[in-house]
Specification:
498 residues; alpha+beta; Arc Repressor Mutant, subunit A; 4 domains; 4-stranded antiparallel β-sheet; 21 helices; 12 strands; DNA-binding; WH-like_DNA-bd_sf
DNA sequence: AGGAGATTAGATGCAGTCGA
DNA sequence: TCGACTGCATCTAATCTCCT
């Protein structure tokens, strides 16, 4: 029997819900085998509640919202592209997934398609992750998102149900949480419904540390090692290298089992080198590996990250932020197609610089000649090679002040609009109330009117009116008096007759 | 100390197996 | 069905050991 067979057997034998929590396991020394086979304590409800509590504190609410809107934007864009029928590996727009930079390891390492699906399922769930646990997605779209172009879904379905059995472990302080990545899977026709465990949702929804992975890259790679290496590099992109990590750590990150490639030479030839080669040809980033040795043994690895010179994706990978996009649309009147054309043809920094200059010259300083064609002006400015479109530092400062003021004005405008709307609603409510009061008053018999009026005059609501008009109970009812109307309506409201 | 020979990490080719 | 994965055999060269 080959190693592969044993692996599958192990996978089938692992009792899915048993290894839930290992409270005192030393995170650094516990081997995968120990965690998988030993009977460990079951996660109690209190534990789960405490964990959820910690992950749902109020200061995280803002984080949830910003993460969700970012997720929503990317998800929405991917849906549009899916409908357009462009293969995901060829789309120009960047589709980013915000991922937790947290050590997560799988008891049985995920295969290539499963790793891709893992990201895809989080990507789909991201926009509503803090409030929902069950998510739905069409298999067509899912298949597109991971670039799985097979006509029948048999393999996709098999991968999903296998994923259901895959256990993942998340260190949390000195605890280890062990959970399924997806709890329930229901495939209804060509729609997949899946449930992500509550605390995984929370963890993903508001990560302490995060990094972005590209869904285009996710779909693109042919080897799981390349995908894993890509994510490892993405996670460390901010510092330009992964830093030296032990071989064990690296093997774990790559999803190399303890029995696989026990010799470094094999690991190098079959995992590291091929992954680097594929990354170089397909990826937007690339790395070179440094060996750390003890005597002549390679014991640790460091990947130094470089921008991939082969990749045409570099200029594409950056994209206009929403504020800039809005500015191009609203200030310069460019349409979506024109913006897309510009964004594809020029580096993002150039576009930002030029839009600054144009904004300063034509909007802030209101140059005499009105601009007839913003698009051609913008394009020729972008193409300019004689440095005719530059701002001095003081102009830049002026511009940023202008932007700030305008933003505040917009904010103020927004507040005023909201205030007006509120006032309008209050007026409408008052009007509504006074109409109801009149209706009620008209249909009331004469005798009851006097009784109600006397009750009003002696009530807290009518007190001021009675004192102001020097009235006493028994006086002639006058509900049309402007001073009386509002407080009389309040009184009736309290009696719940209107 | 230094060199010959032994040992072993690492590289490579090939072939069988299995996953996508 | 094709190509990726994996194991085996063998080669190369770095490093160690032991002896003079």
């Amino acid at each position: 029997m080959g190693v592969r067979n044993r692996k599958i057997e192990n996978q089938l034998l692992v009792p899915v819900a048993v290894a839930r929590l290992a409270p005192s396991y030393p995170a650094t020394t516990a081997s995968i085998a120990e965690l998988g086979s030993d009977a460990v304590e079951v996660l109690t409800e209190e534990d789960e509640a405490a964990l959820l509590e910690r992950l749902s504190s109020t200061d995280m609410a803002r984080l949830y919202l910003s993460n969700e809107s970012e997720g929503k934007r990317n998800y929405q864009q991917s849906l549009d592209l899916f409908r357009e029928g462009v293969p995901v590996t060829q789309v120009k727009e960047e589709l980013l997934l915000k991922k937790v930079s947290q050590r997560v390891r799988f008891i049985n390492p995920l295969k290539l398609l499963q790793s891709k699906l893992h990201n895809a399922l989080i990507f789909v769930a991201r926009p509503t992750m803090s409030t929902q646990q069950v998510f739905s997605v069409s298999l067509d779209y899912l298949s597109w998102l991971v670039d799985h172009n097979v006509n029948d879904y048999a393999y996709l379905k098999a991968s999903l149900s296998e994923m259901q059995q895959a256990l993942m472990q998340i260190p949390d302080g000195n605890r280890w949480f062990s959970t399924q990545m997806i709890q329930d899977v229901l495939i209804e026709g060509t729609t997949l419904h899946y449930k992500i465990p509550a605390f995984l949702c929370r963890l993903y929804a508001a990560p302490d540390r995060y990094h972005h992975v590209s869904m285009r890259m996710n779909a693109r790679f042919k080897s799981k090692y390349t995908l894993n290496l890509y994510e490892l590099l993405r996670e460390n992109l901010w510092r330009g290298e992964t830093g030296y990590m032990t071989l064990d750590e690296f093997r774990e990150r790559m999803g190399v089992g303890p029995e696989e490639y026990t010799e470094f030479k094999r690991l190098s030839m079959r995992v590291i080198q091929p992954a680097l080669v594929e990354l170089e040809s397909l990826g937007d980033i690339f790395a070179s590996v440094r060996y750390g040795r003890e005597k002549r043994f390679v014991t640790s690895l460091n990947f130094v990250i470089v921008q991939n010179p082969n990749s045409k994706l570099l200029s594409e990978s950056a994209y206009l932020d929403p504020g800039r996009y809005k500015e191009l649309r609203e200030e310069f009147g460019l349409n979506q197609k024109q913006i897309k054309e510009i964004a594809e043809a020029f580096p993002i920094e150039r576009i930002e610089a030029i839009s600054d200059v144009l904004l300063y010259r034509y909007v802030l300083n209101k140059q005499k000649n009105p601009v007839k064609n913003w698009f051609s002006l913008f394009r020729s400015a972008l193409r300019d090679e004689e440095d005719r479109y530059l701002l001095t530092n003081s102009e830049k400062a002026e511009l940023s002040l202008f932007r700030e003021k305008r933003q505040q004005a917009a904010l103020l405008e927004d507040n005023q609009r909201r205030e007006r709307e509120l006032e309008r609603r209050r007026t409408a409510a008052r009007k509504h109330q006074s109409n109801r009061m009149d209706d009620y008053w008209v249909q009331l018999p004469e005798g009851s009117r006097q009784e109600l009026w006397d009750g009003f005059l002696s009530s807290p609501e009518g007190k001021h009116f009675r004192q102001a008009r020097k009235l006493s109970p028994g006086s002639r009812p006058d509900v049309t008096h402007p001073l009386a109307r509002a407080s009389f309506a309040d009184y009736l409201n309290r009696l719940q007759v209107i």
